[in-house]
Amino acid sequence: MTMTMAMAKNRATPKKNPWLRRCAAAVALAAVLGGVAAPAALAAPPAASAPPAGTSAHAARGALLSVTPLAELTRAEVGAYVGTIGIGSDTVRHGVSAYRLTYATITPQGRPTTATGLLVLPRGGPHRLDLVSDTHGTTVFRGDAPSAEGDFGRITPYLHAAAGRAVAAPDYLGLGGGPGAHPYMDTASGVSASLDMLRAARTAGDRLGRPLTDDVYATGFSQGGQVAMALGRELSQGRTGFRLRGLAPMAGPYDIAGAELPGLTDGRIDPLTGVFYLSYYLTAQNRLHPLYKNPAEVFKAPYASTLEGLFDGSHTEEEVVAGLPAGVADLLTPAWAEQIKHPTGAFAAAIGASDGACDWKPAAPVRLYAAGGDRDVPIANARSCAADLARHGVRAPVLDQGADTDHRGTAVRSAPQVVRWFDTLSH
Question: 123 pairs with which residues across the strands?
């Protein structure tokens, strides 16, 4: 879930969502923490270190190009910070240090590019650290990525690092400091950017005096849950130099064809949420799998002339929501309303490229976190994923966080459970 979803729903209620607030300003953070002094690094990050000589976008995949210190939080500050959204501090054992990494990776077409991500290290704990890959949920504004100036997307990385593991949280392509537009829900590039972030994190850990083991614990929320499942498959093939130890995605859209698209028309997905996800998905996928030549083929007026510009990474969630209709019926032409019900051609191919993240046999244990009350990513996604894994002989429990738990609440309730489970796997 993103700030966009909260803002959309706030049209009906003025209640604010603390999970989605930005906390970059030291004054704002101090207020949220109830008077706890904010770390100075949050207000004014130091200048980035210079990239190593000879590095460029054409460097080897995963090559570390720069490290920028971002924040230092004490154990008490981390506990207070995660507590603002109702997460307890029982797993918070250390303070944390956060850094922005810039690294070499590839585009969806396989060409060299760069991306950024957030590396968080515990202040204390073992000298040599296991690594958590924490992939974030849907983000439309590049400034809301984990390593960007604001604190959006840092809750779970801080939580995992405070438990004693290093955390690599990629911004993905086209978000944070990465060039170009974000290829939303392109599974292959989500995996390549995440894997290369792990490689860059390993180099950064060495430079910062906190070397990393080969063990990776993969988690992620919403879009990041789907990325985490697909990354787990890549890590399990024995050619990356990493070893998957546990896989715990939260509320991932693993089944667009069987759960997400039907949910747009049968009431399982909130209308405002659905129109946002669908608009983002169609405009992004059109850059990768040409779905239309003219937006007017897909979108009704006036949205045909505005939607592609809204999803260029430079608009905030508030701006995007303000430019969207109230529901899918007001968004799509009749022909594309039918495509949503019965995908064909290039659209069906694009969906096929996104789905299938659970169609493999993990050797590491898997837990799927979801909620019966989720109206962004219905729990049918997790059940479909579990069924795919079962066909490969893998039992992956679906841990339902309850019918009273929405999409955001799934992350709030699940994240500390994931930390505790990773603790058991690392012993």
Answer: 95
Which of 96, 224, 99, 218 lies closest to 162 in space, CA to CA?
96
Residues 6+ apart with CB under 8 A from 353: 186, 187, 188, 289
Dihedral sign computed on CA atoms, order 387, 388, 390, 396 = negative
- Output the DSSP codes for 345-378: HHHHHHHHHHS-TT-S--SS-B-EEE-TT-SSS-
Chain centre to alpha carbon of residue 372: 21
Using an 8 Å Cβ cutoff, are 314 and 321 in contact?
Answer: no
The type of residue at 380 is A
What span, in angstroms and rounded, lies between the C-alpha atoms of 32 and 27? 9
**Domains of the chain, first to last:** 3-255+355-425 (3.40.50.1820), 256-353 (1.10.260.160)
Taking each helix axis from N to C terminus, what angle separates 345-354 and 187-207, rounded to the nearest 10 degrees?
30
Cα(395)–Cα(393) distance, integer angstroms? 7
- Here the tokens at position 58 are 């054409």
More confident residue, 22 or 376: 376
Average pLDDT over residues 100-116: 97
Residue 120: burial class (beta carbons within 10 Å; 0-12, 13-18, 19+): buried
Please give the structure tokens belonging to residue 261: 């698209």
**pLDDT by residue (tens digit) across 175-192?**
999 999 999 999 999 999
pLDDT computed for residue 427 by the predictor = 75
For residue 239, how many other CB atoms are within 10 A of its CB?
Answer: 8
What does pTM read for this prediction? Answer: 0.88
pLDDT average, residue stretch 335-352: 96
Q: What is the DSSP letter of 119?
A: E
Looking at 208-344, list the stretches that DSSP marks H as alpha helix, in order from N- to C-terminal side: 223-235, 261-266, 271-288, 307-310, 317-322, 334-341
